[in-house]
Amino acid sequence: MKKFLFIILMVCISFSCNNSIDSASAEKTVLEKQSEFAIIIHGGAGTILRGNLSKKKEKAYRDKLEEAIRTGYTILKNGGTSQLAVVKTIQVMEASPLFNAGKGAVFTHEETNELDASFMDGETLNAGAVAGVKNVKSPIELAVKIMTDSEHVMLSGEGASIFAKEKGLEMVDPAYFYTERRFKSLQRIKNRAKTKLDNNDKKAAFYDSDIKNAKFGTVGCVALDKNGNIAAGTSTGGMTNKRWGRIGDAPIIGSGTYANNKTCGVSSTGWGEYFIRSQVAYDISAQMEYQKKTLKEATKDVIQNKLTKLGGTGGVVALDNKGNMSFEFNTAGMYRASMNDAGELVLKIYKE
Ligand code: ASP
Predict the structure, then answer these.
(1) pLDDT for 19 beyond 90
(2) What mean pLDDT comes out for the span 75-95?
(3) Which residues line ligand 1 (CB under 6 A)?
(4) What is the band of 203 on the pLDDT scale with cuts at 50, 70, 90?
(5) Ligand 1 test: best mutation among 239, 307, 334, most atoms within 8 Å of CB?
(6) Ordered DSSP codes for 2-61
(7) Mean pLDDT of the 95-110 span
(8) Full set of structural domains in the chain with CATH
(9) Which residues are designated catalytic?
């Protein structure tokens, strides 16, 4: 009888092993190369609701997102590097007043603009980042220069500007970053915060008393080139009404940006403090590396489970070394687009 039970047990074990091998190989077919090269971008997440955006504004966002992604796509298609594709794509958005990066950067409490950016190369794990610059036209270009032309990963403020000037980057008068729309939104937020403080509301957030309805307009891009190299970059003006030299997640490698050819590349947008505490971008890569999760599983767990539980809002765009791509966010919308090697464009704004 004992012998009989032992045989039954062995049959069961071998059946369940075969089953898991089967599901693993099923997964493998999903993980076959999806695209020889690919590109994915975001222009910020937040309370972006269909009714709140005029048709004209919506078209302006769509057109700019498409212009940006096609810029990177063309570079990749012609055999260019993921690094070049990421920089040129982000520069299109940095030059537009629509996004909270470069030209359209939000205002600090002191009515200045302080810009942050970061870049990571998935082949070498080299990275560059800049925080709090006020007169560099393209912070993403500076982040890359810090990576290629200095022994450092991160420079900030005045020193970063001196470095940029020495390297011949385009410098601008801080007035270049003035836009009426962002200035008005600072005044609105300041007034709201003042009313809350007058009413003795101790919870009034320092940068936005209505943070749940915030819109994060940071821009980011991740690309996979024909050589299998992944690059990721993020550029932002931070959060409206920030003060005391506040720095968010965008220039923090592992939070706002991460890239590793072994796993994936990620660019984040959202309430930066939570993205720093959650190490969002690195966590996605780590779950893929150590837990063998797919890109979709990892992005979903980090944003919908871990970040949401902590109270953070925002999202990521990510792609893996097979050209799988993922948009993941826990807000009402995220400006986003992707293109694969077949030239198929996905461009969306609202949650679907
Ligand atoms: N993550 C950025 C920050 O906290 C804001 C954004 O995504 O727009 O600085």
Answers:
(1) no
(2) 98
(3) 44, 100, 216-218, 236, 238-239, 248-250, 269-270, 272
(4) low
(5) 239
(6) HHHHHHHHHHHHHHHHHHHHHHHHHHHHHTS---SSEEEEEEEEES--GGGS-HHHHHHH
(7) 97
(8) 37-350 (3.60.20.30)
(9) 218
